[in-house]
């Protein structure tokens, strides 16, 4: 047996041990809870962590376990040189986490972001968004890798396995930016509209300190952009019979500081006209022609904020009820 084979076996057992430790920790946490405590947790999760998000979390854990099989990565992760004929890796790559840290971070992010978005979008639209953004992000990465290979002739762009849920998660953050842009995150003291931009900025800064993390940057950037493309131009709005969100508050330039926005708007003008023009054709039979109303906000932006405000209010009320029930139980136990 060669030294390389021995190292692979050691690494494989190490990953299995870390995964088993993580799962064992979760199981032990649930075992320590009584029936009433489990019921309380379930009541708390019901208005927040949805069944779909919990199901996706299980998929991420399962995907991480599967890729510990040495040959699984070459079939499930995105390897540009093997995408043809293994085209399914454009879909599977987004749900494959190669590190336990990626599993934990993405599951936590999915549960908390999903509990804000899914009640507003609906389960079907939420799942559709994940599928479309995942596929487009993988295709964007595939195209970029092939282009880099032709420019540099370095085979690492063709054979490096790329996978992870971070592209989808960054796209979901764009949904938070759209629905509750002015909601302030108390633990960060920033508005939600800056979340996608700050995540990319943080990833860029970390990549200078830890060079290995630079591999996540293309996925984060592509996921953010594809999430914006979907929400800006393709997501159907039943209440307005429109597709997308044409409001100025959700323009591409809003991802950047104010002093850069005129330059960004000029660069994106042609693309904006192309897609917005199609959305406003007379054959669409919309009840209004212009995308904005005489007021300071568009109809769509106003309704979006109302939905976001209602969802936040419902979650706060649910949290207050749960806290009150826990207080009563504690008093009763005393």
Automatic annotation (TrEMBL):
Q: What GO terms in the biological process aspect are recorded for it?
A: retrograde vesicle-mediated transport, Golgi to endoplasmic reticulum
Q: What is its main location?
A: membrane
The alphabetical list of record keywords is: Membrane, Transmembrane, Transmembrane helix
Q: Tell me where in or outside the cell this protein is found.
A: Membrane
Q: Which InterPro entries match?
A: Rhomboid-like_sf, TMEM115/Pdh1/Rbl19
Transmembrane regions: 20-43, 55-79, 99-117, 129-151, 192-210, 216-234
Cellular component annotations (GO), alphabetically ordered: Golgi apparatus; membrane
Query: What does UniProt give as the signal peptide span?
Result: none
Know the name of this protein?
Answer: Rhomboid-like protein 19
Topology with respect to the bilayer:
Multi-pass membrane protein
Q: Does the keyword Hydrolase apply?
A: no
Q: Does the keyword DNA-binding apply?
A: no
């Amino acid at each position: 047996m060669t030294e390389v084979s021995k190292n692979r076996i050691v690494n494989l057992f190490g990953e299995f041990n870390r995964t088993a430790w993580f799962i064992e920790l979760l199981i032990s946490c649930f075992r320590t809870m009584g029936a009433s405590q489990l019921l309380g947790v379930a009541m708390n999760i019901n208005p927040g962590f949805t069944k779909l998000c919990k199901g996706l979390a299980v998929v991420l854990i399962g995907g991480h376990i599967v890729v510990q099989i040495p040959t699984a990565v070459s079939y499930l992760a995105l390897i540009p040189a093997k995408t043809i004929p293994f085209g399914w890796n454009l879909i599977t790559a987004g749900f494959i986490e190669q590190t336990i840290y990626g599993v934990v971070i993405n599951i936590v992010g999915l549960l908390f972001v999903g509990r804000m978005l899914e009640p507003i979008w609906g389960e079907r639209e939420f799942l559709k968004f994940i599928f479309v953004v995942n596929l487009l992000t993988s295709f964007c990465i595939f195209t970029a890798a092939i282009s880099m290979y032709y420019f540099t002739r370095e085979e690492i762009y063709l054979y490096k396995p790329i996978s992870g849920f971070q592209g989808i998660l960054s796209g979901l953050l764009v949904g938070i930016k759209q629905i509750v842009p002015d909601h302030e995150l108390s633990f960060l003291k920033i508005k939600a509209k800056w979340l996608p931009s700050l995540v990319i900025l943080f990833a860029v800064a970390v990549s200078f300190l830890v060079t290995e993390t630079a591999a996540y940057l293309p996925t984060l950037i592509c996921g953010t952009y594809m999430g914006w493309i979907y929400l800006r131009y393709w997501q159907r709005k039943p209440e307005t019979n429109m597709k997308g969100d044409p409001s100025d508050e959700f323009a591409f330039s809003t991802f950047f500081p104010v002093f850069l926005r005129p330059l960004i708007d000029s660069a994106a003008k042609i693309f904006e006209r192309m897609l917005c023009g199609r959305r406003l054709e007379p054959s669409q039979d919309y009840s209004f022609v212009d995308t904005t109303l005489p007021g300071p906000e568009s109809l769509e932006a106003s309704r979006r904020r109302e939905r976001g405000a209602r969802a936040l209010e419902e979650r706060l009320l649910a949290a207050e009820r749960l806290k009150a029930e826990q207080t009563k139980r504690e008093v009763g136990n005393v």
